[in-house]
Protein backbone atom coordinates (compact mmCIF):
# COMPACT_ATOMS: atom_id res chain seq x y z
CA UNK A 1 0.00 0.00 0.00
CA UNK A 2 1.08 3.53 -0.76
CA UNK A 3 -0.47 6.45 1.06
CA UNK A 4 -0.71 9.54 -1.10
CA UNK A 5 -2.90 11.86 0.86
CA UNK A 6 -3.81 11.86 4.52
CA UNK A 7 -5.68 14.64 6.24
CA UNK A 8 -7.26 15.34 9.57
CA UNK A 9 -11.00 14.83 9.35
CA UNK A 10 -12.63 15.09 12.76
CA UNK A 11 -12.22 14.78 16.53
CA UNK A 12 -14.89 12.81 18.33
CA UNK A 13 -15.50 13.26 22.05
CA UNK A 14 -18.70 11.26 22.32
CA UNK A 15 -19.43 7.98 20.58
CA UNK A 16 -22.68 9.38 19.15
CA UNK A 17 -20.62 11.94 17.27
CA UNK A 18 -18.78 9.33 15.18
CA UNK A 19 -19.32 10.30 11.54
CA UNK A 20 -21.52 8.38 9.14
CA UNK A 21 -19.08 6.99 6.65
CA UNK A 22 -18.93 4.43 3.88
CA UNK A 23 -15.23 3.72 4.25
CA UNK A 24 -13.64 1.22 6.65
CA UNK A 25 -11.76 2.38 9.75
CA UNK A 26 -8.56 1.12 11.35
CA UNK A 27 -8.04 2.06 15.00
CA UNK A 28 -4.66 2.71 16.64
CA UNK A 29 -4.63 1.73 20.28
CA UNK A 30 -2.04 1.77 23.02
CA UNK A 31 -0.89 3.08 26.33
CA UNK A 32 -0.53 6.81 26.69
CA UNK A 33 2.83 8.06 25.36
CA UNK A 34 3.65 4.74 23.68
CA UNK A 35 3.97 6.40 20.27
CA UNK A 36 0.58 6.06 18.54
CA UNK A 37 0.57 9.51 17.02
CA UNK A 38 4.22 9.20 15.97
CA UNK A 39 3.41 5.94 14.18
CA UNK A 40 0.51 7.55 12.33
CA UNK A 41 2.76 10.43 11.29
CA UNK A 42 5.43 8.04 10.09
CA UNK A 43 2.96 5.95 8.08
CA UNK A 44 1.39 9.00 6.46
CA UNK A 45 4.79 10.71 6.00
CA UNK A 46 3.50 13.84 7.67
CA UNK A 47 5.43 15.05 10.66
CA UNK A 48 2.58 16.99 12.18
CA UNK A 49 -0.58 15.20 11.16
CA UNK A 50 -1.24 13.65 14.57
CA UNK A 51 -0.01 15.74 17.47
CA UNK A 52 2.80 14.17 19.45
CA UNK A 53 4.16 15.26 22.78
CA UNK A 54 6.22 14.34 25.77
CA UNK A 55 3.18 14.86 27.95
CA UNK A 56 1.22 11.64 28.20
CA UNK A 57 -2.49 11.98 27.66
CA UNK A 58 -2.31 14.43 24.80
CA UNK A 59 -4.85 12.68 22.58
CA UNK A 60 -8.08 12.79 24.58
CA UNK A 61 -10.58 11.98 21.89
CA UNK A 62 -10.91 9.83 18.79
CA UNK A 63 -9.08 11.57 15.97
CA UNK A 64 -10.18 10.61 12.48
CA UNK A 65 -7.77 10.89 9.56
CA UNK A 66 -8.93 10.43 6.01
CA UNK A 67 -6.49 8.39 3.95
CA UNK A 68 -6.84 8.77 0.20
CA UNK A 69 -10.64 8.82 0.59
CA UNK A 70 -10.24 5.06 0.90
CA UNK A 71 -10.22 4.47 4.62
CA UNK A 72 -9.88 6.25 7.97
CA UNK A 73 -7.21 5.95 10.59
CA UNK A 74 -8.61 6.49 14.06
CA UNK A 75 -6.16 7.55 16.77
CA UNK A 76 -7.61 6.38 20.09
CA UNK A 77 -6.95 8.10 23.43
CA UNK A 78 -4.06 6.44 25.27
CA UNK A 79 -4.93 4.33 28.28
CA UNK A 80 -3.11 3.75 31.53
CA UNK A 81 -1.93 7.25 32.30
CA UNK A 82 -1.89 7.76 36.05
CA UNK A 83 -1.92 11.51 36.44
CA UNK A 84 -5.41 12.34 35.27
CA UNK A 85 -8.54 12.55 37.39
CA UNK A 86 -10.59 9.35 37.68
CA UNK A 87 -13.58 10.97 35.98
CA UNK A 88 -11.51 11.75 32.90
CA UNK A 89 -10.12 8.20 32.86
CA UNK A 90 -13.62 6.77 33.08
CA UNK A 91 -14.80 8.94 30.19
CA UNK A 92 -11.91 7.78 28.01
CA UNK A 93 -12.46 4.14 28.90
CA UNK A 94 -16.12 4.41 28.07
CA UNK A 95 -15.44 6.08 24.74
CA UNK A 96 -12.87 3.47 23.69
CA UNK A 97 -14.99 0.61 24.93
CA UNK A 98 -18.13 1.74 23.12
CA UNK A 99 -16.20 2.48 19.95
CA UNK A 100 -14.49 -0.91 19.83
CA UNK A 101 -17.65 -2.79 20.70
CA UNK A 102 -20.12 -1.13 18.41
CA UNK A 103 -18.44 0.62 15.53
CA UNK A 104 -19.49 -1.20 12.39
CA UNK A 105 -16.93 0.50 10.14
CA UNK A 106 -14.07 -0.83 12.24
CA UNK A 107 -12.16 -3.55 10.35
CA UNK A 108 -9.07 -3.92 12.53
CA UNK A 109 -6.88 -2.57 15.29
CA UNK A 110 -3.20 -1.70 15.33
CA UNK A 111 -2.28 -2.36 18.97
CA UNK A 112 0.90 -0.56 19.94
CA UNK A 113 3.13 -1.53 22.83
CA UNK A 114 6.60 -0.49 23.98
CA UNK A 115 9.25 -2.92 22.73
CA UNK A 116 11.55 -2.06 25.64
CA UNK A 117 9.27 -3.16 28.45
CA UNK A 118 7.17 -6.01 29.68
CA UNK A 119 3.56 -5.38 28.54
CA UNK A 120 1.60 -3.53 31.22
CA UNK A 121 -1.52 -4.73 32.98
CA UNK A 122 -3.55 -2.49 30.68
CA UNK A 123 -1.79 -3.86 27.58
CA UNK A 124 -2.77 -7.34 28.69
CA UNK A 125 -6.38 -6.35 29.31
CA UNK A 126 -6.54 -4.70 25.92
CA UNK A 127 -5.05 -7.66 24.04
CA UNK A 128 -7.21 -10.14 25.95
CA UNK A 129 -10.19 -8.11 24.95
CA UNK A 130 -9.10 -8.04 21.30
CA UNK A 131 -8.56 -11.80 21.30
CA UNK A 132 -12.02 -12.39 22.73
CA UNK A 133 -13.70 -9.90 20.40
CA UNK A 134 -12.71 -11.62 17.19
CA UNK A 135 -11.51 -8.30 15.76
CA UNK A 136 -8.46 -8.50 13.55
CA UNK A 137 -5.38 -6.96 15.15
CA UNK A 138 -1.67 -6.37 14.65
CA UNK A 139 0.71 -6.00 17.59
CA UNK A 140 3.28 -3.30 16.94
CA UNK A 141 6.20 -3.11 19.37
CA UNK A 142 7.50 0.39 18.86
CA UNK A 143 10.59 2.40 19.89
CA UNK A 144 12.72 -0.55 18.77
CA UNK A 145 15.47 1.94 17.88
CA UNK A 146 16.01 2.14 21.63
CA UNK A 147 16.88 -1.53 22.18
CA UNK A 148 19.96 -3.39 21.03
CA UNK A 149 19.73 -6.03 18.32
CA UNK A 150 20.58 -8.85 20.65
CA UNK A 151 17.80 -7.92 23.05
CA UNK A 152 15.10 -8.24 20.42
CA UNK A 153 14.56 -11.96 20.55
CA UNK A 154 14.28 -11.83 24.33
CA UNK A 155 11.76 -8.99 24.22
CA UNK A 156 9.70 -10.69 21.54
CA UNK A 157 9.53 -13.86 23.60
CA UNK A 158 8.48 -11.89 26.68
CA UNK A 159 5.77 -10.06 24.72
CA UNK A 160 4.39 -13.29 23.23
CA UNK A 161 4.35 -14.89 26.66
CA UNK A 162 2.76 -12.00 28.51
CA UNK A 163 0.10 -11.36 25.86
CA UNK A 164 -0.61 -15.02 25.12
CA UNK A 165 0.23 -14.63 21.45
CA UNK A 166 0.70 -17.56 19.10
CA UNK A 167 2.60 -17.83 15.84
CA UNK A 168 -0.66 -17.12 14.01
CA UNK A 169 -0.88 -13.65 15.51
CA UNK A 170 0.40 -10.62 13.62
CA UNK A 171 3.43 -8.95 15.17
CA UNK A 172 6.09 -6.48 14.13
CA UNK A 173 8.77 -4.36 15.70
CA UNK A 174 8.58 -0.71 14.70
CA UNK A 175 10.42 2.58 14.97
CA UNK A 176 8.88 5.95 14.20
CA UNK A 177 12.37 7.33 14.26
CA UNK A 178 13.90 5.27 11.44
CA UNK A 179 10.84 3.73 9.81
CA UNK A 180 11.67 0.13 10.59
CA UNK A 181 8.52 -2.00 10.41
CA UNK A 182 6.66 0.43 8.13
CA UNK A 183 6.44 -2.17 5.40
CA UNK A 184 4.72 -4.62 7.72
CA UNK A 185 2.22 -2.02 8.89
CA UNK A 186 1.45 -0.95 5.29
CA UNK A 187 0.92 -4.57 4.36
CA UNK A 188 -1.44 -5.03 7.25
CA UNK A 189 -3.45 -1.91 6.35
CA UNK A 190 -3.69 -3.12 2.79
CA UNK A 191 -4.95 -6.50 3.95
CA UNK A 192 -7.59 -4.89 6.18
CA UNK A 193 -8.82 -2.40 3.67
CA UNK A 194 -8.99 -4.84 0.77
CA UNK A 195 -10.65 -7.67 2.64
P1 LIG B 1 -0.78 10.04 23.73
O1 LIG B 1 -1.43 10.75 22.58
O2 LIG B 1 -0.47 10.91 24.87
O3 LIG B 1 -1.54 8.82 24.14
O4 LIG B 1 0.67 9.52 23.25
P2 LIG B 1 1.05 8.77 21.90
O5 LIG B 1 0.90 7.31 22.10
O6 LIG B 1 0.35 9.35 20.73
O7 LIG B 1 2.63 9.05 21.82
P3 LIG B 1 3.43 10.08 20.90
O8 LIG B 1 3.40 9.65 19.46
O9 LIG B 1 3.00 11.46 21.22
O10 LIG B 1 4.94 9.82 21.39
C1 LIG B 1 5.35 9.99 22.73
C2 LIG B 1 6.85 10.24 22.81
O11 LIG B 1 7.58 9.10 22.36
C3 LIG B 1 7.32 11.40 21.94
O12 LIG B 1 8.31 12.11 22.63
C4 LIG B 1 7.88 10.72 20.70
O13 LIG B 1 8.88 11.46 20.06
C5 LIG B 1 8.47 9.43 21.30
N1 LIG B 1 8.46 8.31 20.31
C6 LIG B 1 7.39 7.81 19.67
N2 LIG B 1 7.72 6.78 18.85
C7 LIG B 1 9.06 6.62 18.96
C8 LIG B 1 10.03 5.71 18.38
O14 LIG B 1 9.72 4.82 17.56
N3 LIG B 1 11.34 5.85 18.77
C9 LIG B 1 11.71 6.79 19.67
N4 LIG B 1 13.02 6.82 20.00
N5 LIG B 1 10.86 7.66 20.23
C10 LIG B 1 9.54 7.59 19.90
MG1 LIG C 1 -1.24 10.68 20.60
Automatic annotation (TrEMBL):
One GO MF term: GTP binding
GO terms under cellular component: cytosol
Swiss-Prot/TrEMBL keywords: Cell cycle, Cell division, GTP-binding, Magnesium, Metal-binding, Nucleotide-binding, Septation
Cofactor(s) required for function per UniProt: Mg(2+)
Any single biological process term in GO: division septum assembly
Family label: Belongs to the TRAFAC class TrmE-Era-EngA-EngB-Septin-like GTPase superfamily. EngB GTPase family.
Function (record text): Necessary for normal cell division and for the maintenance of normal septation.
Protein name: Probable GTP-binding protein EngB
Source organism: Halanaerobium praevalens (strain ATCC 33744 / DSM 2228 / GSL)
Amino acid sequence: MKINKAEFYKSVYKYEDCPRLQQPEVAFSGRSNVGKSSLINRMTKQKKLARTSNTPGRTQCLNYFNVDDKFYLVDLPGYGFANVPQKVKDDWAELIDTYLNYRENLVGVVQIIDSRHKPTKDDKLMVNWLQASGLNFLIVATKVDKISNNKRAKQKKLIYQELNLTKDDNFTFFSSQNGEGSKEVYKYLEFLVKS
